[in-house]
Amino acid sequence: MTIPASEENGGGVSIRPAERADLLAVTHIENASFSQPWPFDAFERFLGEPGFLVAEYEGDVVGYAIADVSRNFGRRLGHLKDIAVHPDRRGVGVGSALLTRAIAVVTAQGADSVKLEVRRSNDRAKRLYREFGFEPLRRVSGYYEDGEDAIVMLNKLE
Ligand SMILES: CC(C)(COP(=O)(O)OP(=O)(O)OC[C@H]1O[C@@H](n2cnc3c(N)ncnc32)[C@H](O)[C@@H]1OP(=O)(O)O)[C@@H](O)C(=O)NCCC(=O)NCCS
């Protein structure tokens, strides 16, 4: 697939809030992307939240992101909880478009920084996050069920 490049969103890709009708496609991409995928009902719980976003290309859901905001010692902290792009649709800017919008959503909700956890071995995701200004904050030993460590990354939005 060739998606025409665009400065803003990978071209031809639209980012919009997720709807119930998207959930099967979302869980399909989740299952294809992670060894410990979230179940269907985990996504269901985020329906209606502004930070549950899908990327659509030619009528198909090709990726999604989930971000929310929590209070943390009087500040609002954004959290990127999940992001994935269909394996056949990676490398053309869909993930960047989702990340851009997810950061905009949590910023609009008053977050002054965004954190995320990423597998230590997930170099591609880490590189993408660094391009967006995320910096490694700490390592969490054995964070994932298979024993792999997580790297917590933080993006100070100011
Ligand atoms: C991580 C992930 C979401 C990135 O999504 P993506 O759509 O491939 O991301 P992008 O296309 O925006 O950027 C990825 C690469 O494509 C490049 N790219 C961006 N726009 C491009 C374009 N128009 N044409 C060609 N390449 C482009 C980027 O420079 C980047 O290059 P890099 O791999 O050298 O860093 C995706 O790889 C994925 O779903 N992985 C599995 C799930 C996962 O690991 N999620 C993260 C959990 S923490």
Automatic annotation (TrEMBL):
Domain named N-acetyltransferase: residues: 13-158
PROSITE patterns: GNAT (PS51186)
Entry GO MF terms: N-acetyltransferase activity
Listed InterPro entries: AcTrfase_RimI/Ard1, Acyl_CoA_acyltransferase, GNAT_dom
Tagged with keyword Transferase: yes
UniProt KW keywords: Transferase
Keyword Manganese belongs to the record: no
Entry superkingdom: Archaea
Listed NCBIfam families: rimI
Entry protein name: Ribosomal-protein-alanine N-acetyltransferase
Annotated source species: Natrarchaeobius chitinivorans
Top-level taxonomy: Archaea, Methanobacteriati, Methanobacteriota, Stenosarchaea group, Halobacteria
